[in-house]
Amino acid sequence: MSEPETVTHVHLALHPDHGSAVTATITGSSPGNYPVPWLTQDEILRVSAEAQRIHDDIAAGRLIIHLHADDGWTTVAVGTYQGGKSVHLHGEDYLRQETMAFDTESEAVADFHRNYTVAVRLGPAPLTTIERAAAETLAGPPSDTGVHDAPARQRPDQAGLAQRPRVRR
């Protein structure tokens, strides 16, 4: 017997109090398969708040990501805060968390290379689907300024006019 199809929709909107944040409203026939069912609702809120803080720190330039890798399950990264503390990050979107802290950037980067070897890539990881959708929501709908590109000018021969014959001398 097959399981009934689950239909879930996510609506992203600007957060009413924080212009750099979005809210997500999930609707549908099922709450979905949340990847951490062992957490209580309060723990989920704390994890999500921490992930949002990390995201905001990256977006504001307070946390610079040096390297990233795929560990086989999710994205991992190493970065340094403006104050000098370096960290390893694990996870994506609302599950991103700091897993290790280091006193220096060189220690953090060396340990990251030791753990993820050939999977290491320079810079931050590409945006996830959720991050792209949030960025599009924050950018707002495309606005029509009323200014449009002028149509390309046609050459006379394209406009149905005969081309002037060349005169050879």
Secondary structure: elements and pairs:
Layout: E1 8-14, E2 22-28, H1 41-59, E3 63-70, E4 75-81, E5 86-90, E6 97-102, H2 105-116, E7 121-122, H3 129-139
Antiparallel strand pairs: 1-2, 3-4, 3-7, 4-5, 5-6
Structure description:
The protein is α+β, with helices and mostly antiparallel strands. The chain contains three helices and seven strands. The protein is globular, with a radius of gyration of 25 Å. It starts with 7 loop residues before the first strand and ends in a 30-residue tail after the last helix. 11% of the residues are buried. Mean pLDDT is 79; it is low at 152-165.
Which sequence of strands runs across the widest sheet? 6-5-4-3-7
**What do the pLDDT scores average to?**
79
Fraction of residues in β-strands: 15-25%
The low-confidence runs, each spanning 5 or more residues with pLDDT under 50, are 152-165
Largest sheet: 5 strands, antiparallel
The helix content is 10-25%
H/E element string? EEHEEEEHEH
What distinguishing features does this structure have?
169 residues, alpha+beta, two-stranded antiparallel sheet, globular
